[in-house]
Every structure is written in C-alpha cells, then in structure tokens.
Write a structure and sequence with these properties.
Glutaredoxin; seven-stranded mixed beta sheet; alpha/beta; globular; single chain
Length: 184
C-alpha cells in the first residue's frame, strides 16, 4: 500500500455527481485540481451497509473540506451506472455533494495497493497535498467504518505545517520546539 511521502498515482475515472433528480457523469483526473489538497477514500462496494454511512458522513462535511480548499472524492470498483442507481435508491446518498468515482478496471486500487484479496477495495483513505504527495493514510477492517471528522482534523493539522500534539484541533496552539527545549 502507498504511504506517507509517496506520490499519489495518476488517474482518470468516471464519476457520478449532482442531486439524484439530475445526476450526471463526469470524468475526473488527478490533474483537475492540481496544487490543491485532496482526500480520496475507497469503499468496498455499493448497495452495502457500512459504506453509505461513511459516504454520507464525508458528504455532510463537504463544506468544511471545501473551506480548506480540499476536494473529497469517493472511489469503488463499481461502475458509474451502479453508483447512479445506488444514489437514486439510497436516501442518504441522493443529495451527496461529493463525486462517486468508478474504478471498475481497478487500476487505481492496484496502484494505491488497496485492492483486497477478494478483489474489492479496502476501506482506505488518502490525504494528498498540493504537490501530489500522500500525507496521511488509513485503512480499517471492512466491518468498521471510518471517522471522516478525524480525517478533517488530520487535514487541519497537516495544513498548519507545524507540530501538532495528540488530539490537536483547529484553533488550538501548536507545539513550538524552541520553547519546549527552553522549558518555557
């Protein structure tokens, strides 16, 4: 699996965007928002139980990620047509403000190292900086949903470009090594 310091792979995937009554397909690539932060999260498959809870939670934080100039993209191996059907059928996904990308050939999953032995994506997330360098990764067991609020907290810490203590939150003081070494 790719990790901190690695370059995020190039990709060009079709995604589903828009409210459920006007869904459309669009092509997304790693070059779309060059020099911006990105959060890419993978889920195993559509029409499941844990996945929509995570996808909807990322969607509810869309404005906060957007405020931080960060694009959130969700990815699975299902086709854009399956994403489209799921968005229309699932109440929590109908007004989703983030794109659902199709990696049906599993090229991005393989390039990131998150294709599971069962052929489905692992429940993984990558935070990628404006230089396309991975700054944070996380993978959970398929039965355990991620915490998008924690991803946002880590993004906040990364964007300070300073030392942040355990459980640091936006607006709190960061660590000053000079003061710490001086005992101040």
């Amino acid at each position: 699996m790719l990790t901190i310091g690695d370059q995020f792979p190039a990709y060009q995937l079709t995604g589903v965007v828009g409210p459920s009554d006007a869904l459309e397909f669009r092509t997304f690539s790693g070059e779309d928002r060059e020099k911006s932060w990105r959060v890419l999260f993978f889920w195993p498959k559509d029409f499941t139980f844990v996945c929509p809870t995570e996808i909807a939670a990322f969607g509810r934080l869309h404005a906060e990620f957007d405020e931080r100039d960060t694009r959130v993209l969700g990815v699975s191996g299902d086709s854009e047509y399956v994403h489209h059907a799921w968005r229309r059928a699932h109440e929590d996904l109908r007004e989703l403000p983030i794109p659902m990308l199709s990696d049906s050939r599993q090229d991005l999953m393989r390039a990131c190292g998150v294709r599971g032995p069962d052929g489905f994506a692992q429940r993984a997330v990558f935070v990628v900086d404006p230089d396309n360098e991975i700054q944070f990764t996380m993978v959970t067991a398929g039965s355990v949903g991620r915490n998008p609020t924690e991803v946002l907290r880590v993004l906040d810490a990364l964007q300070t470009d300073e030392l942040c203590p355990c459980n640091w939150n936006r607006g709190e003081e960061t660590l000053d090594p000079v003061k710490l070494l001086a005992g101040v």
